């Protein structure tokens, strides 16, 4: 016989409350609130950035429902050495594959990537470079939203 798979029958996944109907109503309310946030950002422009708001609300929801951060995987790793090794290998693979595989292959379809026009003129201390980056991101954000250049046409190239 084939066993039926159900969340209700699974002992490993606890419900956030003893009442599954209340849990589903709470999920529906969360869904409607999330839809309001997304529509409020994309249509009515009353919410500044829905990604941050939804991320924070999702973290709060999981914390309140399950009672701890480990329910979503936020716990101390079993081996820090293994974790750093995986991160190092992933970073090396990302750089090497991007440089020697992705860029040459995409070069057949799209033009080669170029740095922004003023990138070589950024000099000074680290704080100056970070300030220039933040200003560039801010200019690009407003240019993209309004479709009007704020500083120069090549500021967001």
Model description:
- By secondary structure, this protein is mainly alpha-helical.
- Among the domains are: 13-73, no CATH class; 111-157, no CATH class.
- The chain is 56% helix and 0% strand.
- It contains 4 helices and no strands.
- The chain has helices spanning 20-42, 50-66, 80-106, 126-146.
- It is extended and about 60 Å long.
- The model is unreliable at 4-10 and 142-151 (pLDDT under 50).
Summarize the structure.
Among the domains are: 13-73, no CATH class; 111-157, no CATH class.
Task: Name the descriptors.
157 residues; mainly alpha; single chain; 4 helices
SS-based structural class? Answer: mainly alpha
Q: How would a crystallographer describe the biggest sheet?
A: none
- The total of beta strands comes to 0
Taking the alpha carbons of the first and last residues, their distance comes to 61 Å
Q: Helical residue percent?
A: 55-70%
Mean pLDDT: 76
Secondary-structure blueprint:
Blueprint: H1 20-42, H2 50-66, H3 80-106, H4 126-146
């Amino acid at each position: 016989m084939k066993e039926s798979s159900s969340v209700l029958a699974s002992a490993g996944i606890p419900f956030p409350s003893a009442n599954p109907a209340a849990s589903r109503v709470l999920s529906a309310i969360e869904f409607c609130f999330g839809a309001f946030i997304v529509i409020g950002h994309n249509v009515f422009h009353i919410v500044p950035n829905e990604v941050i708001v939804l991320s924070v609300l999702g973290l709060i929801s999981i914390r309140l429902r399950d009672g701890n951060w480990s329910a979503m995987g936020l716990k101390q790793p079993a081996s820090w050495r293994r974790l750093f090794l995986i991160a190092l290998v992933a970073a090396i693979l990302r750089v090497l594959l991007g440089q020697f595989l992705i860029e040459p292959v995409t070069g057949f379809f799209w033009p080669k990537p170029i740095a922004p026009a003023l990138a070589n003129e950024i000099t000074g201390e680290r704080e100056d470079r970070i300030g220039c980056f933040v200003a560039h991101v801010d200019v690009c954000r407003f240019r993209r939203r309004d479709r009007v250049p704020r500083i120069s046409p090549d500021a967001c190239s």
